[in-house]
Design a protein that fits this description.
Number of helices: 10
Strand content: 15-25%
Strand order of the largest sheet: 3-2-1-4-5-7-6
Bound molecules: S-adenosylmethionine
Largest sheet: 7 strands, mixed
CATH class: Alpha Beta
Distance between the termini: 35 Å
Mean pLDDT: 93
Low-confidence stretches: none
Structural class: alpha/beta
CATH architecture: 3-Layer(aba) Sandwich
């Protein structure tokens, strides 16, 4: 997996995700989460934003950084719902996504977007109170560089929130079946996964960069796995799995189907992790 493949993929397929994905007009490119009190798809798509907004409010944030911001949907939601003065910065490796974000945010002066790699953040971005990455960290290729860059952009006491797939101890154990080996392989290549770690491994990497895990929660049970659409994709994988590999878009769908199986069998977890930057 390389950053340039990820860039190419999102440059080419973002419009398809926005057009054909079920996003209730929110333009988010992530998993809906059916947490407590959530009734509609729109609310489920914003659930990860509720989790982040809580930290923004607690820290009385003046600067917030979205790492892997897609077309800016999370920035849009957070900016609208955090009623205080705050500058939001979004970074995506896809120039196409940044173009869409900039077009949509034309008149919103406190939201700034950069086409850049989060493993090498632009110097213009100031230090943030809160940084977050929703379903973006896994696409990276150098987790150490990611944590180093983010730690460098956080104020002392600042927080980093990751919402993403993590490997479980069982998934990392190597004691898995041949089918599961194939599922992991399809997931890694279809979803362009470079960073797949257990929480313990992440903790070790982050600690070296002065970041400490202060909270984490397994959100897998809030996903609706095995919907009708997923069953249809499963049928396609069964009938035409090899053919799907020829198109990065369909290979991604196939990878998503394998991801579901890995979540169901406990080899992966969809995690919410909060890191705090040391004060010194
Ligand atoms: C699944 S999308 C999630 C988008 C957005 N966070 C959301 O929830 O709508 C993954 C995002 O990560 C971005 N991304 C992946 N690798 C990146 C990297 N190395 N640097 C910056 N952005 C990256 C992609 O361009 C894309 O915007």
């Amino acid at each position: 997996m390389s950053n340039s493949n990820v860039k190419k993929f999102y440059n080419k397929n973002t419009n398809k995700f926005l057009r054909f994905g079920k996003n209730a007009g929110t333009k988010v490119i992530h998993q809906p989460l059916w947490g407590e009190g959530v009734k509609t798809l729109e609310e489920a798509l914003h659930f990860s934003h509720y989790l982040i907004l809580k930290h923004i409010k607690e820290k009385n944030a003046k600067v917030v950084l979205d790492l892997g911001c897609g077309v800016g949907a999370s920035v849009f939601y957070l900016n609208k719902n955090y009623k205080k003065e705050c500058d939001f910065y979004g970074v995506s490796i896809s120039e196409e996504q940044i173009k869409i974000a900039k077009d949509s945010f034309n008149n919103i002066k406190n939201c700034h977007f950069f086409a850049a790699n989060f493993e090498k953040l632009p110097g213009e971005i100031p230090k943030a109170d809160i940084a977050y990455a929703i379903e973006a960290f896994v696409h990276g290729t150098d987790a150490e560089a990611f944590f180093e860059q983010v730690a460098g952009k956080l104020k002392p006491g600042g927080r980093l929130i990751l919402i993403d797939d993590m490997l479980t101890q069982k998934g990392a154990s190597g004691k898995i079946s041949q089918t599961q080996v194939r599922q992991l392989q399809a997931y890694r290549s279809g979803w362009m996964i470079g960073n797949l770690y257990t929480i313990n491994q992440l903790n070790n990497l982050a600690e070296n960069m002065n970041l400490k895990i202060i909270e984490n929660k397994n959100l897998t049970s809030l996903m609706h796995l095995g919907r009708f659409r997923d069953k249809m994709i499963g049928l396609m994988v069964f009938l035409a799995g090899r053919w799907m590999d020829a198109s990065p878009y369909w290979k991604n769908m196939k990878g998503g189907y394998s991801k579901q199986a890995l979540l169901k069998t406990g080899l992966l977890e969809y995690q919410y992790i909060v890191f705090k930057k040391n004060n010194s």
